[in-house]
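for the writeup, i need someone to sanity check this before i put it in the appendix. the sequnce is what the collaborator sent (i think, or maybe the updated version? ugh). structure was predicted straight from it, no edits. if anything looks off just tell me and ill rerun, i have time this weekend
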Amino acid sequence: MQSKGTVKKVVLAYSGGLDTSVIVPWLKHNYGDCEVICFTADLGQQGELDGLEEKAIASGASKLYVRDLREEFLNDYVFPTMQAGAVYEREYLLGTSFARPIIAKHMVEIAELEGADAVAHGCTGKGNDQVRFELTTMALNPKLKVIAPWREWDIRSREDALAYATEFNIPVTHTEKDIYSRDRNIFHLSHEGGLLENPWNEPETSMFQLSVSPEEAPDEAEYVEIGFEKGSPMSVNGKEMSSVAIFEYLNELAGKHGIGRIDIVENRLVGMKSRGVYETPAGTVIHRAHQALESICLDKHTMGYKDAIAVKYAELVYNGMWFTRLRESLDAFVQVTQEQVSGTVRLKLYKGNVIIAGRKSPFSLYREDYASFGEEDVYNQQDAHGFIQLFGLPMKVEALLDIEGGKEVRWRQPDYSKFKRD
């Protein structure tokens, strides 16, 4: 078979699944019998890591690196995104999106450590992940060649991949009965493909793995308190815990109450729409708690501006532009806003719902004596008259101009006919 290049050594982002398993021999057969080094990032996918080294070697790799990146993932990628309030297209908490830059970052580090001249990934040419991996590689080491087999090979389906694995005696556990494409880490679990390709189909109950259905959740609500310091969760029910421990605990607790399921049709970066179902138990609880704490710790103007940049931040993360000056600049702003976002939030978990039951902070801007309708020294209610006159001045002037021009004030008889159905 004719070689596609002069690559000597390549580092492959390796999951042990069907695609990356067949990529190992494919690289060796198509790139001059190059050495293939596999790399797996432990982001909390749990059982998926079992037996990976034996599988990688059996597939033809020279070695496998496994790095436990869970704390780094949560502290340096998940929490900054959450603190920014970034949510893609109203619902998606970006569980897969911000996992790709950290994987690619360490893949580049291993390539440099091993003296490799290329990196490779198993992303398809239709998805977002190819962009996330390759933009990160370009930002960190633009001299590395990037190999994307799905854009080069003749394999066009999972059935083709299974046949290729059989031909080269590659051990794979994937079967043709597996209909869903999943991505799991400590933050979430995504489901795509299969029955979900028709947006009219309701997800199967058996598909979910991290959460029970709300109907099967306990009939009694459960309370949990999350403590924050400078916008990051630090404790649960008064007990300080590591980031990983917090997520492991809340994933089990929230999953038991059917929390964190979303079903969305999202706009991929490449232009097509894609349907995905996500399970994000702990992430959903922490996101809601953080919002509640910000509601008492941030002033009106800071919160308003922060909400505006949250959309852009989410877009950058979704599009794989983590290692950019703009994302770094937005982070600098966000980190300043989090300086006094410290305190505790109490939440009630009940049948798929996260209900805010209380929030407190030593930096709270909420003062009962200021907000009450009684007499106080800070706010003179008579001042409201002048404020309202100035605040409404533009509207008053426009109405006066209509009257002086002999016209009826435009808002008295608005034309709603253009909104009527034929």
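The first strand starts at residue 9 and ends at 13. The chain has three domains: 9-69+96-178, 182-298+341-366, 376-413.
thx in advance!!
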